Fold:
Amino acid sequence: MAKYKGIICGHVYDDAKEKIKFEDLSDTWVCPICFVSKSMFIKLAETAKEIKEEVPEGEENTIDFNNAIKISKDNICIKRISEKCINCGVCTNTCMERQGIQDLCGGKACVNCGQCIQKCPTGALVPKSDIEKLESALKSNKICIAYTAPSVRVALGDAFNMEPGSFVQGKLVASLRSIGFKYVFDVTFGADLTIMEEANELVERIQNNGVLPMFTSCCPAWVKYAEMFYPQILEHLSNCKSPIGMQGEMIKKYFIKKMNINPNDVFTVAITPCTAKKYEIARVEIGGTDCVLTTRELIEILKNKNIDIKNLGDSNYDSLLGEGSGAGMIFGNTGGVMEAALREANYILTKDYLPSLEFQEVRGLDNVKEASITINNLVINVAIIHGISAAKKILEDVKNGVSKYHYIEVMNCFGGCIGGGGQPQIDDDKEIMIKEKRIASLYKKDKESKYRYSHDNPDVQRIYKEFLGKPLSQNSKIFLHTNYFDKSEEIK
Structure:
């Protein structure tokens, strides 16, 4: 019995499970998911060997299947296993539909987001592994320090037969300690720093007639897209580093000095849902992080060591750069950065707390959401976008100077970081359900958190008092802010 896969939404029609064989379906039949015709479906080969090409040893990334997305040999985030590729074109269509990148330019236009990995039906596309880097550091007795992004803790359980969206923070920390990490920190601390800097930057731009609208800058795939395709709007991007960028800097510039640790003895690892973070930390202007491992790579390590997280007790993050606030936690989903920033902006402007912290207007899985928030008679127009292809009109308006917004959040991946390219793969028919459960899990943790404003985080207060001074100070700008560059020449 044959199987057929839609090249737009990825829906699989399995002759063995349907009453009518695909070939016998009427020409008027349409996909039940995205409503395209039969012509947009391709037959899946029973094994990859049916169309396998001869590949010289060591050249697995250079095969140029005519339908498959092109992966540049120097892509440091994504790898293709050519013997698994069936040339179905799902990866290419995913890139075009969700990222809006029409001309792939021999792989040069890749934003490293890994959404092609998520949709690949055969596992031919995978995050490029950095596991050997960690193993080498452990063998050389380096002091290995891990820090985990919010979204990892609501997806890791998927690989261990746990309910989708299970919040496994304690088991995540315990698993990293079992691997050999000396210290384990929470990137929600870095997210709180990002909010402290970004909310103050937004208020400063509004009050001082700065460049508006201001875009968020924590998604490296979005930043790279802007640098390549919309260099005209780079001054609109917040100049804040991402939470991981800030976290890594504070470990190298603050924590290890406070602990009197030799910098040469330290190896820092970010555990992320995002393949594009591998690209981000390779940027010369982003320091502090030596290695990025995706959720999938962590799962591979744990499976190889026969570690089932269900059998682990809970462990807590280390202090100083420990857990963050609820505001930092919701960075992991679309709308979360916006909501956290609006909470903080309100406090900056009013010195008061909101009666309700839930900004329902910015929540949900619509690709584009907008709202008008009034703070002290100041109206702030905001937009939230996930899936870069959905940003086209808003980006054109900003480029042409006719945007109505003050603040715009952009995340590359559908659902935000919880749907990152380095997360466990999701069946197409369960995508919405699983992502909604991951998001709900993060919101639940936010609601239960002792601190729901970034400025209330005691560790954030300590690091400003002892090291940074205040948001947008000279030290903050040195260590927590960055620059962007016109990269349009790279795709010509």
Remarks:
- Residues 111 and 221 are 5 Å apart (CA to CA).
- Residues 46-63 have pLDDT under 50 and may be disordered.
- The first helix runs from residue 90 to 99.
- The chain is about 35% helix and 15% strand.
